[in-house]
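Re: the multi-chain job from yesterday

Posting the exact lines I submitted so nobody has to dig through the queue logs.
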Amino acid sequence: MILRRVRAAGWGVSATALGLLALLLWSVVYPNVAVIVGSFERGLADWKEFASSPADLDALRGTVIVAIGSVVAALLVGVPLAFLLTRTEFRGRRVLSGVATLPAALPPLVGVLAFLFLYGESGVVTRVVQRMLGMREPPWTLSGLTAVIFVHAYTMYVYVFLFVSAGLERYDTTLDEAATGLGASRALLLRRITLPLLTPSLAGAMLLVFMSALGSFSAPYVFGGGARVLSTQILVSKLNGALGLAYVETTVLAVTAVLALLLLRWLEGRRRYVMAGKGRITRSGLRSPVARALLPAFAAATVMLLVLPHAMVVLVSFARDGAWTTQLLPPEYTLDNYRQLAMDRELWRPITNSVWMSVLATAANAVVCFAIAYVVVLSQAPGRRMLALLAALPWAIPATAIALGLAATFDRNAPLQLRFLFVGTFWILPLAYFIRNIPIVTSAIEGSLRQMDPTLEDAARGLGASRWLALRRVVLPAARPGLVAGTMLAGVAAVGEFVASVVLYTHSNRPISVEILAQVRSLSFGTAAAYSVLLILLVLLITVGARWLEGRATQTEPTVNAA
Amino acid sequence: MNRFVRRRLGHAASLCTISLSVAMACGTSDGRTVLTVYSPHGKELLQHYELGFEASHPAVDVQWVDMGSQEVLDRLRAEKANPQADLWFGAPAEIFGRAATEGLLEPYTPTWADKVPADARDARAAWFGTYMTPEVIAYNTNAVTQAEAPKDWDDVLDPKWKGKVLIRDPIASGSMRAIFGAILARSVARTGSTAEGWEWLRRLDGNTKEYVLNPALLYQKLGREEGTITLYNMPDIATLEQRTKTPVGYVIPASGTPLLVDAIAIVKGAKHPDVARQYYEYVSSPAALRDAAVKFLRIPARTDIPIDSLPEVVKRASTDVKPMPGDQKLMRDSLDAWMKYWDANIRNSRRGK
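And the result, structure tokens for all chains:
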């Protein structure tokens, strides 16, 4: 009898697995296939044009340079900072670690605009340096691939920092002491112990930076004609009416990304070292008095650099539009930008739109991704490996490619081809946000579920609990930390999303990011900055809200964690 | 659905519910007919007409989306199966022409159809001209004196402007496409081939400091002297000069300049064609055109507006501007291919070298 029950329930899970598989095939794979098919619509003509066009080859080269350059830059900033903050004790350490992840809270387009105001040719920092050195010409220009990599170093080092810090948290420093005691030099220690142990963290972080840089759109978009990369070249081709060429460019970009994903996964799997036991960290002070004296100053400077873009956005939101020309800082300040936002009924629309759409998308993510994670981690259902792969796929496919795929697939009603008219409707953006956030929510929940002892569910079932009861009282509580963290990240990403939005928005669902661009277009930098400030506040609200929820959950209900 | 979500999300659901009710409370749906207008004409002009039209048509809510001319075309193409816009207000006639051949426009003959010159109207009434837009050379008046400023297109190629010319990214911009197209059409008219025109554009690329994403950033960079001269359309530059503190002036090129017909059309499959026609007539009425001339320095395409009722700047433009010679049809047919060639082969070929 027991046997029959388990088998019957197994059918339920299998059906769920198949349903999820079908959903991902339809929403993730199908649009991209449509793009690939579209690239062959004129036979090989568009591919030949791509291969012979200097602009496209230039863009391809630019894309690869940006991706590799960003990885190097992010490592150069993130690794030392992670070591500094986890291994040493110095004045200002707490403040620095408090703001170290701040760049992640800066929505993509906002960050780029802030950089323009700070480090652009007529930016504040540029002019300060220019005046201090008494130069006639600005010391640098913020354009081209270097500018893009510079922005990426700021926004993406956070991944490296977080991954390496987490790796170092698990690291047992007594190993270092043992090695030193046995006579190993510092270089040998680094090469034979520290780096191998950090390989998984480093590889994960590098992969994340590489992917993000490959598909990055906002920075090359705003820094304009100077930098040519594939993600913006796609839009140029589309705008020029060469849709087939745009499909070829999208295919090339997506394939490059997926290849990179596979390559790095392989590299990651080749060497694996496991830490036995829990991490133990001893924070040491610095021996050299020079370093001890310099470190707080260095920390203060780094904190400044990290906070500056946020501060700049706030400053511009109080500046009077048009008055700021050749002065160092805006000469006139006003509350007008906020007053206008409060008065104009139309100005609230983008904010409610963004909130609404990210709530819808994130709710769908929570339900679907929980189901995916459950099937992948806790069941033996057929196709679960495939499911895990498909759930990770949107992560590798750049957002421009996702957007173009959706635009190509859902622009008409053809139920027999499983095509539905979403383009030009409200639903296209929540769908895009949902797809983009599948990987992050799924992997967060998976992480939590993997920490649960799988026998717990069986135990509950054995004691007579129904599948639903076991799910609700055992699996869900175990998944909660990942669920909250994952939906929080998804909510933050959705509310500030720009790349897919700018391709797919319609007037009725225009989100905040698109409105910021529209305000910039109409010369209202102040209003654009005021919107940006509201967006940053929204992101903060989501983060704080999620922390509060998580805190309450752990207080009221003790979680069932056996392992 | 709520119970379902609540069960799954536990406390997270309460956060969602709160946000949802906020979203609902703030949404504006007041029952008026929504007329959606796609236009590159800019916030001020669009807001002005929005208020005026809504005052006389209280049951209509005008919603406009401000974007580049070429972006409007791209959007109409993407939304062909489910048109979101009712009206397309503004873009060079050349772009309207392509939209008409792709079947994106709904023909409409306005009441004043016979009051515009023949080249400012479509033979099949798909679009009609509202404004005539000359292209000019603009400069930062703090950095460049009127005497120093380039007087004609060829002056812009002078080596003394190397690294000083700002160019709005030409792919999305109707104005820049018109200027580039005119240079190439002039080359064809003079020599029978585009070779001379490409060389001209290559030399311009060599003098170019930067291709700028949108007009706002262009104005800002010009105002802050990141570059000191640019090529753009007269009404936008003149409006900038009059309305903001940006130190900018302009020169009408002596040898002639592309005189763009800026048009208007009803979108095929528009959800509110009647209201769209009313708005069409409203913005092209003599009173509205005079308004546009006085407040936004647009030159009316209609010939029945007495020139004396127009402001000085507009009068000057209508007398000083010499249309640039060139085959309009050739330009219309070749512009897409030309721009693609430019993007692939000319952009950045000499810039910064």
